[in-house]
Amino acid sequence: MKKILFPTDFSEVATNAFVHALEFAKIVQGELVLLHTFELPIYDNQFFPENYAVIYDSLALAQFDMFKDEIPKLRAIADERHLDKIKMSHRLMDGNLLYNIKKSIKEDKIDFVIMGTSGATGWEAFFMGTNTGAVISGIDIPMLCVPLEAKFKKTEIIGFTTRFRTKDKKALKMVLDIAKKTKAKVKCLYVKTSDSDVSNDTVTAWEKEFINEPVEFFVINSDEVKETILDFIMYKEIDVLTMLTYKRGFFEGIFKPSLTKKIATNFDIPILAIPID
Question: How far apart are CA 236 and CA 23, in angstroms?
Answer without folding.
Answer: 23
